[in-house]
Specification:
five-stranded mixed β-sheet; single chain; STM4215-like; 113 residues
């Protein structure tokens, strides 16, 4: 199971299945989340054996109200920390899309496996 599929499994029920890779479909219900793997690292032993993998994943929540996107992100953070031992990286950043008229909350997480 990929780290991305584990994120979907952990967050999907809370979002009613509205979690998508990179970009949401136009008909996506509100609120929804998108995730993007933005970087990571691999720990390799001197003998060449991979000892651990890491992914830095950015999660973005979109909603019609800023408060809702922030509350949803906070709930997802709790889910990811509890279910997957994710490490939150930094604080939530906010944005507004004038095209979709939606408010976004973004946060990066680190996952090891």
């Amino acid at each position: 199971m990929t780290i991305e599929s584990q994120i979907v499994s952990a967050c999907g029920p809370f979002l009613g299945g509205r979690i998508y890779p990179d970009i949401a479909p136009l008909e996506a219900g509100i609120p929804y989340a998108v995730y993007t793997r933005v970087s990571g690292q691999t720990i390799v032993a001197l003998d060449g054996e991979v000892k651990a993998n890491n992914a830095r994943v950015q999660l973005a929540v979109w909603s019609t109200f800023r408060e809702n996107s922030v509350e949803t992100m906070n709930e997802l953070e709790l889910l990811l920390v509890t279910a997957m031992k994710a490490t939150p990286l930094g604080q939530i950043s906010y944005e507004f899309s004038p095209v979709s008229k939606l408010y976004g909350s973004r946060k990066d997480f680190s996952f090891w496996w």
